[in-house]
Fold this protein.
Amino acid sequence: MDLKNVVKKLNRFAPTTLAEDWDNVGLLVEPTPPHKVNTLFLTNDLTEEVLEEAVTKNADMILAYHPPIFSAMKRLTMRTEKERIIVKAIEKRIAIYSPHTSYDAVDGGVNDWLASGLGEAKVDPLHQTYSTCYPTPGGYKLEFLDCEQGLTHTLKSVPGVSDIMLSVNDNMVRMRASMNCTTSGLPRALEILNKNEDVKGTIQITQLMKPPIPHTGMGRLCTLKEPINLKQSLERVKKHLNLPHVQLAVGKEKSLDSPVKTIAVCAGSGSTVLRGSLADLYVTGEMSHHEVLAAVAQGTSVILCNHSNTERGYLQVIRNKFDEQFEGKVKVIVSEVDEDPLKVF
């Protein structure tokens, strides 16, 4: 399958517009076209060892959950691991794509997978993602009462003013005018309206909101159908992530027998996403020492599993999704070398 078609399918599953503003997602390395993708190689982290595995398995494209290009690169030499990875990928004509936080936000993404191991629950985003555009042209709705309709005709020619509508006002004397304005169109329209004393006092401006995208956003708040205790929560997390050990901080005045009804989860680093969330338990990969202390002080227990352990298992999920999406035209494989660098002894 041509690289451009593969990228289209990947973007259709999780649009890169869902990613956080600070992130670097999408196609990061593109070989000179045409580039056919027969084998798509999935990994959480693209290290030199993982890249060597991808080369050995004849990968034409790598999907690396964490972007191997994040900070700006001023040169491509053999000096650092990141530079060597990009140089070798280019030499071997391997495309690199990174979804990162777009997979965190998307419905059915990493955080939903992480939440799925906690038990039957109502699951909602902790931080809702909103559409990148307004439901109508412009971000403002401008309304006023017009006696003669002359102003309405004048505003039709103003750039940034659109969707002008007239309706009969209750007193039947003046018409209610309504229109959409862009950020630049609004001051132009107001300049015209403010010259008319009769209209000036009737102006109403409403700032429009970009509509939320259902079931999409950062983090998840899980409200369990049936409460369990903290010890049971711990065992469920370990089983879901296939981990023998995790770290636990018990909330103030709580114990292993304390009931857990609400669980806030965030794959990877949860410090920012989970901060201030009201829940009985936080589940994430990592948090700073002081963030854990703050959670414990508010009575919230914290389970830490190491950063990539809360993400890597999702690769098996998307492998199955992609097998269907690519209709057998692309072989999808998951790295066997990729692993979290931290081990518990």
Q: What stands out?
A: The longest helix spans residues 230-241. The two ends are 44 Å apart (CA to CA). The longest strand covers residues 212-229.
